[in-house]
Amino acid sequence: MTAREDHDTYRLEIPLDASGIWDFKPDQSVKVAVQNRKWSVSSQTVKLDAKGQGIATFTFFANPGALRILVGPENASDEELLGMQTINVELSARQWADRRELKLPPIQIHPYYWYWWLRWCRTFTIRGRILCPDGSPVPGAKVCAYDVDWWWWWSSNQQVGCDTSDATGAFEIKFRWCCGWWPWWWWKYRVWRLEPILAERIVPVLQRDPKLPKLPTPSPAPTLAIFEQLLAEEGVLTRPASTTVDPAVLPSLRDRLLKRLPRVPELEQLRIWPWWPWSPWWDCTPDIVFRVTQDCPQPGTVIVDEGFADVRWDIPTDLTVTLIANERACCIPICHDPKDCPEGNCIVISHACSNQVNNIGGNPGAPATPAGYANPGVAASHGDRPYAGAVPISGVFGDTAGVDYYEFEWAPTAAGPWNPMPPPASGGFARSFWGPQLPAGPVGFHSVPFSFAFISGRNVVQSREHFEANNDPGSWGMTRFWISNRDLLMVWLTENNFANGTYYLRLRGWDLAAGNLVNSRILPLCDTDKDNYLVLTIDNRVVGPASGHPPSVPDHPCGPGTVHLCTLEPDTDFTAVKVIDGDGAVTPVGACTNVDVKKGGNLEIDFMTYDPDGHLAYYTLIATYGENLFVNLLAVGTLSVGAAGPAPAALQKGPTYGAALAQGAAAPTWAGGMLHLSVPVNTAFPEPCCYQLELRAYKRTIAGCNYDFSHNNLSEFTFGVTF
């Protein structure tokens, strides 16, 4: 011992005694930690002998003063010992008076602690796969697991671990989980937020009880003040409302609340406090949800985001899961069907947008008519749909096709004549793969452009197979995997390049030799002896002065400052609005005027909903009034065909494509036109107010692969009603 150690040090011996444990076996060591008033911590591990005896010895270079002594399992960190409800001994500063060596009485280790320490902190393992809905694996996804807790209408997620999925979508998350925290310690590491689903369950239940005070608006920050308001007597608080949360008071607060609140079995089953007891600092098995992101197509794209309804309660130490990603995930395609990976010197043209060709009229496997329309023969607004704008066309070459470059040709009929695709209509694209960067680099998501270019006087694009053969060919399907646009062949840019109509497309393949295109050929459709082809019907629309819509007409304005688009595809308009009262008197109604309807009668509306291309899907006509109120005029009025005006008289009144077909329209054509609606005024106008007629019309066109009827138009007409 050095001079300093001999004269200036302070020595503390802490005996340990586990002899009171029946059938004691020294199969686990013990950690002893001491903490001074400055929160500095020292610790050491003690191996107990066969009799359960051991000593921890600490040396200090100055009088340590008061100390807190903690005893726990050897696998606990110093910080964990400070926060957990384990053996605690307080050593006062007085005990060091005139002493440099201090030996404490043995600290007895009770069997409760000895056996609890065995499960105090455990390692959990979660294994699983992240898949797309069709079973394709999702690579390169960051899978994070969270322990979730909630009480009242607040929830908190604590991340326990993350892993990145491999090419099979597999991942493994290992994490250490401890329990037995001091409530205040556990609470300070949680971040809370408002959980709307919980609020939606709680609020209606309490609103049904007239004895309870009105609840405040749910807030993101937890507070106990709301519960004192619920416990108030005749609106008077029985104690000061606390805005801070001391989790230690929750058990007693729960007892008081249960005497006041109604019993709700549904909320008990959902484990919502106070109907369900809650002490998560003693929760030794986590309750897990997952959140998964993928840097494809954009960094941090969320592809799984589990919540309240997805919790896996009290998971085992080994858990296996399968997570299903949403539609935003990038997957590694697999061959679910022979058509996905065809054999032979052939091609399968499989999709236009997301429609399989066997669901587009006139294509292989689809009804013959109407040719080029998606959902052919379906008597509904989503039936017989043409295309517009950019149309991605996908397909797969047979395994022996050997096409290096290809181009598309077009024709007005199946018999030709065939023409090269105009360069402005041949849209290139990018494919993405997951794996090492080319020629060598980090693993991740990487984009590869596939652009059309002129070679030997032809506007062609490289095939995926040719790219693979010239870029580390042995890696594809082994360490590199296409995950985005793998089967995309071309984006057909129809707008401003093709007039509306039905077109046949086919793919011509080429080999590349010495930088030149050779061996031109039209590949057959796989499993047939027919040339490959695709038939699509195009219906683009024009918006603006070139559309033919008169922008300066006072009673049919369009463009900036209006809600009405300057287009005829479709066009909408109110051509006459009038009231015919109970005496037969006719009162024309102008925009921004007032009309008196105290004599009853009918509201008569002449209006136009028209698509000259005959691709109308449906239209709606409502009257809005007051605050968030409306009347569906088509549902309460009598609809009939109108007289010719700015558009022809409607041959079928609809108001949907399916209804028009039942009324005699010949698929795929329904143009709409001039229509008339009669509605009793007491039905159209429930109360004196300002009313706005809203007429909306929608085309069936799939524009830019948008299936939400984005080709639409709107007309509005506002007036006041008095009784």
UniProtKB/TrEMBL annotation:
Keywords in alphabetical order: Carboxypeptidase, Hydrolase, Protease
GO molecular function annotation? carboxypeptidase activity
Q: Which domain of life is it from?
A: Bacteria
Q: What is this protein called?
A: Carboxypeptidase regulatory-like domain-containing protein
- Provenance organism: Tectimicrobiota bacterium
**Phylogenetic placement of the source organism:** Bacteria, Pseudomonadati, Nitrospinota/Tectimicrobiota group, Candidatus Tectimicrobiota
